[in-house]
Amino acid sequence: MQVSKATWLQRLLVLAAFALCFFVTAFARADVALLNVSYDPTRELYREINEAFAAEWRAKSKEVVRIRQSHGGSGSQARAVIDGIDADVVTLALAGDIDTIAAATKKIPADWQKRLPDNSSPYTSTIVFLVRAGNPKQVKDWDDLARPGIQVITPNPKTSGGARWNYLAAWAYGLEKFKDEQKARDFVAAIFKNVPVMDTGARGSTNTFAQRGLGDVLLAWENEAYLALNELGKDKFEIIVPSLSILAEPPVTIVDGNVDRKKTRAAAEAYLQFLYSPRAQAIIAKNYYRPSKPEHAKPEDLARFPKLKLVSIDSDFGGWDATQKKHFSDGAIFDAILRGNR
Amino acid sequence: MHDLQKAAPSVTDESNVARYVLIALALGFLALFLVLPLAVVFTQAFSKGLGAYVAALTHPDALAAIKLTLTVAAIAVPLNIVFGIAASWAIAKHEFRGKSLLITLVDLPFSVSPVVSGLVFVLLFGAQGLLGPWLREHNIEIIFALPGIVLATIFVTFPFVARELIPLMQDQGSADEEAALTLGASGIRAFLTVTLPNIRWALLYGVLLCNARAMGEFGAVAVVSGHIRGETNTMPLHVEILYNEYNFAASFAVASLLALLALVTLCIKTWLEWRYADALAAGRRH
Amino acid sequence: MDIFVEHITKNYVARETGSPAALDDVSLHIRSGELLALLGPSGSGKTTLLRVIAGLEFANRGRIRFGDLDATGIPVQKRGVGFVFQHYALFRHMNVFDNIAYGLRVRERATRPPEAEIRRRVEELLSLVQLATFEDRYPAQLSGGQRQRVALARALAIEPRMLLLDEPFGALDARVRKDLRRWLREIHDRTGQTTIFVTHDQEEALGIADRVAILKDGRIEQVGTPDEVHDDPASPFVMTFIGDTAALNVNIRNGAVLHAGKRLPIVGSSAGEGPGTLYVRPGHVQLAQTAGASLTGRVVSLRRFSSGQRAEVRLHGTGELVEAELPAGSHVNSGQDVGVNLGQVRIFR
Hints:
The structure holds three protein chains of three kinds. Chain B is 83% helix and 0% strand. Chain B contains 13 helices and no strands. Chain B is globular and about 65 Å long. The model of chain C has no long low-confidence stretch (mean pLDDT 88). In chain C, 39% of the residues are buried. At the B-C interface, helix 8, helix 9 and helix 13 of B face helix 2, strand 6 and helix 5 of C.
């Protein structure tokens, strides 16, 4: 009895040691490994991009590159980079989150957004509405979201990049319509009064709307809305395009501090350059992101994007810094709206 | 005597009603909150057929998640056995200043939210954390890598072994060990031949529970994992990711594996209880 | 093996009670081959002293010698003491045979006897403790007395230099206790093992020990044969702790012992002058006719003992209580006035 006990312990220890060796050897295959820290809805996009890039990089440099992906709410992903996750590139939902990384870690220069074309945004998107099949509540435009009796699903602008775009699109519409800041604010407040739950990320909200069947309208990224349509059934949902929305520019950059330490700068820079290549631009359009170089996309993919009036964060809101302070900081307008609605 | 016999059935009759109501309530509750969800997990997992189920589990990302989970458990559980035995030994068999503080600390992971447990390690080892710069300088990765996940898991599962052992060891006292020492046994020998056999069933319980939790932990691991696909995603995290990607069958396939693990744990526990009922009773009676 | 306890001092907080137990400059010589009882109330330090001798605890100051060997720094494993615990401390997952063989099996390979020799030794011990047919039983299947016998056999198996027993019979019922006591004495006489046992039961100590050491508050009050400590106690504590006593307030003037102003017919008192306390055991109190007796009182109650009968007498004047052992066939009634004569007494000032 005593003997069997001792060997039992020994066996466990051997097992643990074996498992450790197993793990250490498991990830030693690729020549270069890049880590792309991205926001929630880009999983499908980057799965395709990464494959294409790996093939191209191999042909060009004879190196096997493996791109690892991490997805989450844009804000919390930025936080992870600040806390030390070894990202070679970050591809987040908004420039503000990358600014935060730059300020907190100094691993990214302050003028990072000027390093790549189109404000470092190889693709853009916008905010549209997803409603249930047949549009039973007759939702046509932003005005309908402020109607009493409508339930609107959006994530929390405090944690989700997409939700900030949702909020700003609503604000832009209100301002356009009433030409008065206070009235725009009341308009946005009326919409958020109709929000029963706020998830922390875009995917969470999509699931709340599509899976749990909550709400009449989902405010969603254009690409996210199309994806939900494809994945969950074209017969179940419809996309409604409002008369005005916001031009969302999800930017990308390398994390200089990390690539220099890991000696991966060449691959990382090539990876981001690749996003602007004809090949990648076609993939981007295919995944319902609006390509920055539409000439490379397939015409039938482009034809799916409705024409609508888009306002921009820089020309209409004065940039992310000002917007963040005015609307989303603690005690700013968004907090006041939530308090007022309670 | 006669009166008693007549009175007896009526008394039990009444309590029978209460008993059946209670049993029905308990069973209904179990069915609603345990059996039904389990059934849903398995039907969802096989909703696209056995082929899809196998494909989901043999996908490289899923395999990586399974491997990572097993690795984490294989490191965390043995370490917690050692820590747990050491802590219970110290608490049960020695008097020292701050003992009650130590008992409280052992329980801490139970009372702290797992998310906070994870954040503690981010604050300690993160780039902005206390030890972050030093670790970076020496190229040691802790957070968003295996060591961080192991640390968070150890933290969260620490109490399981210790909590099983402390009351038992306190109850048993140290006379057995002292007897072994007077008979000439070395400290290690006394531990292996006397202490360990005395606590083996409680230890096994603790290890089972510890292992189940180590493999199933979500909150604390989610905070320190960094969600790097195929690398720092454990099985529970992988379940969530697949779910968020509208990949429900695959998500539930991995979830069913976790559920299976729980069921196996339960079966082993029950089997042990049944198989060693005598030994357990004797151990307690003594 | 002579054991010398020399100036042992230990400050210590007992785990079980949390109360401070200490040894205060204790010196004691245990003679080779004797059976010595450490007697005292709980908290007197007797168990601590035993554990210090065994090496289970270490003193802050002082030395322990086994014959010529200084054992003070020797760890418990190397002291070669057979220790028997109050609650047996048998290994519950081993059967009786394995329990007894344990001390032989844990020896280093060089000194470990072959398995056949171990078997012979264990069987010998099993028959010594009269448990020859019990070798396959587990401790949980034995009675308390049987367990304690196994514990003793286990301690003897390592051929210890000495045998130390900590309240060996404390957890047993009265009848088994008595049998085991006699049996322990027999074993001791047969093996000639130097033996120390701790007890709080004075009857047990006086009944089987060659000598008794009485402890109080971490000090040794008196060491002597049972007769010595019983008949010639060195202090009021020993007097009252060993056997029943009555205490009377007295005054000593010019060598005469005065009780409530009356002179008692007591000789040979060397207690000095002034107020003191007179102690007398029930066996040394005789009841008599009131006339001519040195003290008088009234019988308050009569009590039956297994050995005889005792009368409790309240003395006239002072109201003090005195117990008297009645010889067989005496006729005394409750409420009766009696005279009281004192035989052997001790006076402490």
